[in-house]
Amino acid sequence: MDLDLDKLKERQKRIRNFSIVAHIDHGKSTIADRILEKTHTVSKRDMKAQILDDLDLERERGITIKLNAVELEYTAKDGKDYIFHLIDTPGHVDFSYEVSRSLAACEGALLVVDAAQGVEAQTLANAYLAIDNDLEIVPVINKVDLPSAQPEKVQEEIEEMIGIDASDSVMTSAKTGLGIDELLERIVSDVPAPEGDITKPLKALIFDSVYDSYRGVVLNVRVREGLVKVGDTIELMSNKKTFEVTDVGVMSPKAVSRDYLMAGDVGYITASIKSVVETQVGDTVTLADNPTDEPLTGYRKSTPMVYAGMYPVDNGKYEDLHEALEKLKLNDAALEYEPETSQALGFGFRVGFLGLLHMDVVQERLEREFNLDLIITSPSVDYHVTTTSGEEIVVDNPAELPDASEIKEVREPYVRAEIMVPEDFVGPVMELCQRKRGQFVTMDYLDKYRVNVIYKLPLLEIIFDFFDDLKSNTKGYASLDYRVEEYEPSELVKMDILLNGESVDALSFIVHKDFAYQRGRDIVSRLKEVIPRQMFEIPVQAAIGNKIVARATVKAYRKDVTAKLYGGDRTRRDKLLNKQKAGKKRMKEVGKVSIPQEAFMSVLNLNKGQTDDSGK
Ligand SMILES: Nc1nc2c(ncn2[C@@H]2O[C@H](COP(=O)(O)OP(=O)(O)OP(=O)(O)O)[C@@H](O)[C@H]2O)c(=O)[nH]1
C-alpha cells in the first residue's frame, strides 16, 4: 500500500468534518439531502427523500433518531477536491445526547435556523453544545422562500441570543436549492481542516456502534491520531479487548471499503466483534502492538429518564421479547432493560427510555420488526428513597415503592426547564408551570418580544404531556429545553388500584400527595370506561395504603355496551392512546378481569383530566 506521508498530509488538509444542528423541523434533513444531491453522492433518481434517515420509522415520522456519518466529495471553486464528512444529528429533545456524540467527531457545525421561526430552545441548546466542543459555527438561515421569512430579524436574534457573528449567515432555501452552492463553499472556507499527527499511534473515538447481522458490530469512529487498516489488531482501551480489523471504510451513503482510515477521517471499522456491549460509545480505539499512551476523554453518556414495564400479551413470548430487546439494544445505546415480574402481567422487562417519544419508537419497532404484541405499563421516573432503616434505594417501578411506614424520604428528579416564548404568553406558561408543581427560577427578556422563562419542574410532571400543553397554551409559539438537575425530597405516595378486590401491581402509580385524591377519582372513572364488562360486577378501587380513596363499578354485561373511549385533541399522548385502541384489542387476563392496554396508560389521561379541571 502506498502510504506517502506527504500525500496523506495533503489529503488531511482537504477534509472537513461537520454536523448540522437545529431546532426540530427547521430543515436539517432537507439541507443534508440538498448537500448530498449537489455533491452527487446519490443521483437524484436514486434518492429517496431524506436518505440519511435510514430507519423506516424515522422516515415515516419525519424525525431523525440515529446519527449517520456520510462521506461526500466536493470540488470547490478553487479547483481542489474536498472530502466532507457530514454527521447528521437528531433534533428532538428526547435525543439530545446523540447530538453531543456527533459533535465530538467534528470541527464545525452548521447551525440551521428557520427564517420564519427564529431561534428556538433547541437552537440555543445545540449551539451551546457546539460552542462547548470548540466547533466553528456556520450560521445558516433556512426557508428564506417562505413569505413569513424574516432573515434579518433572525440574524439579529442569533447575534443577541447566541453571541456569534451572524452578519455573514448563509441564506438558504433547502426547498428550492437556493444558497446551497454558497453553503458548500463556506464549509470549505470556514470549517477548519482536522489536525492530528498521522505518524503517531492510533487514537480513534467511538462515537457510535451499530450491529449489522452480516458484518457484526460496526464501529463508527473519528480518527484523532495515527492510521488504521485491514489486518491491524485493534484494542478497545476501556476493556483491553483486542480484535483483528476485517474492514475499514466510509458511508457514501452505502458502506464503501477503504485501504485505511487516518487522522481526521470519520468512518467505520469492523473487526468481528460479536456484541455491542463490548464497544462502549466514547471509548478509544488504539493498536494492540503500538498503543497510544492516553485515551481520549469520553463524553456524556445517555441516561434513561422514563421507565415502563413491557410484557408480551402472550406469556409464551417472553424469550422472543428478550431477544428482540437484545437486538434493539445493539442499535440503540440509550435503551436499558432488565427482567421484571408482575403478579398481574407475569414475566416481562422494565425498560428505560430517554422520553415518551423514544418509548413510542421502541414499542413500534418491537411490534413491527419483531412481530410482538405488547402490554406497556404507565411510564414512571426513577425515585431515590431513603428507608427508615437507613437504606438507599432507587425505585423505577411504582409497585416496588416500599410501604409508607418504611419510608423516611422520597426524592424525585427535577429538571431545569427553559421555555422560550413571546411575551404575550408568559402568563399562560407560568400558570401551566405552577400547576405542574413548578418553582419559578428566573425570566430574561431575549429581545423586545421574547422571554426565556426558567422553571424548576418535577420530571414526572413534564414527561407526559407538558410539551403538548405548552404548545396548546401558547398557540405553538413556545419551545422547550430541559435537563435533569437534581433530586429533591417530595411528598409522594403510591396509589394502588384494586380490581375485583385484588390489587393489580402493574396499575399502581406514584403521585404527589396534593393530587392524590383527584387522580384516584380520575383513574377509577377512567378504568370504569375502558374495562370491558363481564357477566358480573367489577368493583374498581384506588387506595393509598389501606385507605380506599375512590371507587366505581363496572356494571355487569348488557348488550348495548358502547365503550366510551377518549377522543380528544391531537397530541402525542392521544396518538399513543389511539394507536393502542386501533391495534388489535390487547388484553391481559388478571384474575377474572380482562384489562385492555388503554387501562395501563390511564395515567397519561389523568394528567389531562387534571389540566382540564383546573383550566375550566
Ligand atoms: N418552505 C420551505 N420548507 C422547508 C425548507 N427546508 C425544509 N422545509 C420543510 O420543513 C419541514 C422540516 O424539515 P426537515 O428537514 O425534516 O427538518 P429537520 O430539522 O431535519 O427535522 P428533524 O429531522 O425532525 O429534526 C419539512 O416539511 C421540509 O419539507 C425550506 O427551505 N423552505
TrEMBL record:
Question: Which reactions is this enzyme annotated as catalysing?
Answer: GTP + H2O = GDP + phosphate + H(+)
| CDD domains for this protein | EF4_II, EF4_III, LepA, lepA_C
Judged by the first EC level, this protein's enzyme class is hydrolase
- Recorded topology in the membrane: Peripheral membrane protein
Residues binding GTP, per UniProt = 25-30, 142-145
One Pfam family of this protein, by short name?
A: GTP_EFTU
- Indicate the segments forming the Tr-type G domain, all copies: 13-195
* Superkingdom classification of source: Bacteria
SMART domains, per this entry?
A: EFG_C
Where located? Cell membrane
Q: Which GO terms describe its molecular function?
A: GTP binding; GTPase activity; ribosome binding; translation elongation factor activity
Kindly state one GO CC term assigned in the UniProt record: plasma membrane
Q: List the protein's name.
A: Elongation factor 4
Q: Which gene encodes it?
A: lepA
